[in-house]
Write a structure and sequence with these properties.
The chain has two domains: 119 residues, 2,3-Dihydroxybiphenyl 1,2-Dioxygenase, domain 1; 147 residues, 2,3-Dihydroxybiphenyl 1,2-Dioxygenase, domain 1 (Roll). The N and C termini lie far apart (38 Å). 45% of the residues are buried. Strands 1, 2, 3, 4, 5, 6, 7, 8 and 18 form a nine-stranded mixed sheet that branches. It has a nine-stranded mixed sheet with strand order 14-15-16-13-9-12-11-10-17, with helices on one face. It has 309 residues and is of the alpha/beta class. The N terminus is likely disordered. The longest helix has 13 residues.
Length: 309
């Protein structure tokens, strides 16, 4: 029943497959490639001089795109839809909302190794969304190195207009709330992707990046990363700990531009039909970390949202 009524309830005639990739702005491309490849464990698929690089943690051409910029932060967030038909419906729907979708030119699509792609913003937030349905496979299988990364997990944003943005996501863009952390954070999944959250929105003084997440396949990946990051003078800003919200073990650390990234192991999954209702969880530290940890002051503090993408 939920699948059949999803379009009516959410008013969005399209379905997501997964978070496809996140594009970050970084101040030193080579330094960031080294970090995400050699310390985080992504595989470098392609680098274009000192301006752009594509890394992956799957069989896709990329799950992380890095762009050289004077200001570090998030450039855009891309979601893969289930089919080209979903993409066509999404394009028409976004246009009807008055959000001015922009088709990505063929030259850039060739660079991204993607089929038809469009981008847009909603009035409630400055983030650029990208929707596509086809991406070329990478040159070979993803080969884990320092960590057995399973997938790009999620992105969490600070929002100056959080309540309005949340309403747009749930009422118009087919996101489902899995849980609320007090009145501060809403954790959402891009329906019908099953994972507890592929996107999160948190109250903030301005629109900004909070963190990006990579899900790993082994709890030992989290423990080893804790030591690996410390041995390489990478600041640990939260964890290791356990999020009871999503039933995951986590570790947060800072990249060379002090953007916050996370490893997590384990996550609640939701069925497409008859899923549980979202919980309203109290705004207490032990809800975020049942092991009793407290985030460092630098946690989630750096990351501008690019005004054009």
């Amino acid at each position: 029943m939920e699948k059949n009524t999803a379009l009516k309830e959410n008013m969005a005639p399209f379905r997501y497959r997964k978070p496809g990739y996140v594009a970050l702005n970084v101040t030193d491309l080579n330094r960031s490639v080294h970090f995400y490849r050699d310390l985080v464990g992504l595989q470098l698929e392609e680098q274009v001089g000192s301006d752009m690089a594509f890394l992956r943690c799957s069989g896709d051409h990329h799950n992380l795109a890095l762009y050289r910029s004077e200001t570090p932060g998030i450039k855009r967030m891309a979601f893969e839809l289930e089919s080209p038909a979903d993409l066509d419906r999404a394009r028409s729907y976004v246009e009807r909302q008055g959000w001015s979708p922009q088709e990505v030119p063929e030259e850039e699509r060739r660079q991204l190794k993607q089929g038809r792609t469009f981008r847009f913003r909603v009035p409630e937030h400055s983030i650029t969304f990208e929707f596509y349905a086809q991406m070329d496979r990478a040159s070979g299988s993803f080969v884990p190195t320092v960590a057995k990364i399973q997938r790009l997990g999620h992105v969490v944003l600070h929002c100056a207009n959080r309540d309005e943005f949340l309403r747009t996501l749930t009422e118009k863009l087919n996101f489902r709330v899995s849980d609320y952390f007090g009145e501060q954070v809403a954790f959402l999944r891009c329906f019908p992707n099953p994972f507890h959250h592929s996107f999160g929105v948190s109250r903030g003084e301005k629109d900004a990046l909070h963190h990006i997440n990579f899900m790993v396949t082994d709890v030992d990946d989290v423990g080893r990363a804790n030591n690996r990051m410390r041995n390489n003078d990478v600041p640990i800003v939260y964890g290791p700990g356990r999020h009871d919200i999503s039933n995951s073990i986590f570790l947060y650390y800072l990249d060379p531009d002090r953007l916050t990234a996370e490893y997590s192991f384990g996550m609640e999954e939701f069925p497409e039909e008859a899923s549980r209702a979202p919980r309203q969880l109290p705004l207490r530290p032990e809800i975020l970390d049942s092991w009793g940890g407290i985030p460092a002051p630098a946690f989630g503090k750096v990351g501008a949202v690019e005004s054009s993408s």
